[in-house]
Amino acid sequence: MKNAAASSNAVSQLQRQVQAQQEEIAQLHRLMEKKEAQWAATKQSLYEQFRLALERTFGPSTEKYRVDQRDLLINEAEVAVDEEDGDTGTAGNDEAESAAPPKRSKRGGRVALPPELPRVEVVHELPEEARHCQDDGTALTMIGEEVSEELHVVPARVEVIRHVRRKYACRTCEDGVKIAPAPAKLLPKSNASATLLAYVATAKYQDALPLYRQSQIFARHGAAIPRNTLARWMVQAGERVAPLIDTLRRHLLSAPLVHMDETTLQVNQEADRKASAPSYMWVQRGGPPGQQVVLFDYDASRAGRVPVRLLGDYAGCLVTDGYEGYAEVVRRNGITHVGCWAHARRKFVEAQKVQPKGKTGKADWALNQIRKLYGVEKQAKGLEPEARHALREQKSRLLIDQLRTWLDKSLAQVLPKSALGKALHYLNNQWPRLTRFLDDGVIPLDNNLAENAIRPFVVGRKNWLFSHTPSGAQASAAIYSLIETAKANGLSPYDYLQHVFETLPSLNDDDLNTLLPWQWKETLPV
């Protein structure tokens, strides 16, 4: 009996050991399967990153790549600077999708000369002897004219304006000398006129012409102006227009909706920072049509304290991309934070690029749904906010509900680290902000107004590369603000800057409202 009991115990012990080993082996198998799945996901993610890197380096610089749906073109400013601006609209509805494709514009050919340009007539007359009939010598009668036009350019001319202030005195009483007052100047201690300052500022900040090239151009015209002198003028001009910038800021922060964005800037000489450390240029845009304000601000940081400083106690709607640095000011001020469908769409464009060629997938479906949202916006263009809100309730809400149902289903089917997974999770995380446009007809679908405003700065940065000092960066921000605000209101940047530089020195702070572009828009050529 004892032997049988001992044998039974030994068998039971062996069974337990075998069972434990089997459980350990099964656990190892599960661990290996998990590791293999992780390795496969990592491999797929690295492959997609490699494909996207190749696309960015060697592929077309456009988000329309492989989007055969006449989709809208919406690019980051950093991407869009190498290509022509695309149309931000889309096909409006299903009927528009089935319509014939638009005709292509003819390339080349003679361009019609603008009728508003001044004309100088040059009359070409026959010689006197040729204005008589060869048979009987009778004088010929003019029966008409043949007119052709050519575009003529008068090169820039540099000249010196001499301000002669005459003095007067009484020969008998010797009561003192009287002299005509000196004209007010933006930079009193310089010999730069308002016209010259406006010319230099427009060339650099609007046309992206670096100061050293401008110095060379002036030298060819006989005026030797060193680059550091031009730079000093721009810094001083930026400081002098600060009161006008403050006036524009007050107008901006009274708007019900503000767009914000930021981009990098290198500043070489900044205290306690390396020259290679990235700094940032922030942009804000807002205001009703015809009274738009675009403001640039320099800061060494991208932290949440910067929007807190720039927005103050603003409590309206704020449209941004997905950057979380705006969260603090949104929470502190009770701001309505609005997302950007252009950025959400961009993630799916990247996911589409790594799909196998010739195949469609979830990214295509999402892009098509977003295209339809923009189609509704194209129909709503020009409508009052109430009518736009009603149209969105009728058409956009159904598209959003379909997209939400699809998103919930797709999140569980796609690897989170894949390009498509990143696009889905971005859409899911930004969903409350992205759907706020359904609540108010004033709220736009994207942050393109801010991206379009910051694009000229990015273009210029590719030419002049960096700022030497923080004061130079701040001056650039001020002048960019005036130029882009003028453009947003349909004004010539050069004419606006010239008027501001001429008028500002003689104004009090209470009169600065007269320099707002919409106060005297009709007085300037558009």
TrEMBL record:
Residues 1-12 have a biased composition (Polar residues). Residues 481-518 form the Transposase IS66 C-terminal domain. InterPro entries: IS66_C, Transposase-related, Transposase_IS66_central, Transposase_TnpC_homeodom, Znf_dom_IS66. Residues 1-21, 78-113 are annotated as: Disordered. Residues 131-174 form the Transposase IS66 zinc-finger binding domain. Residues 46-122 form the Transposase TnpC homeodomain domain. It holds the Pfam family DDE_Tnp_IS66. Residues 189-475 form the Transposase IS66 central domain. It comes from the Bacteria. PANTHER family: BLL1576 PROTEIN. This is IS66 family transposase. It comes from Vreelandella sedimenti.
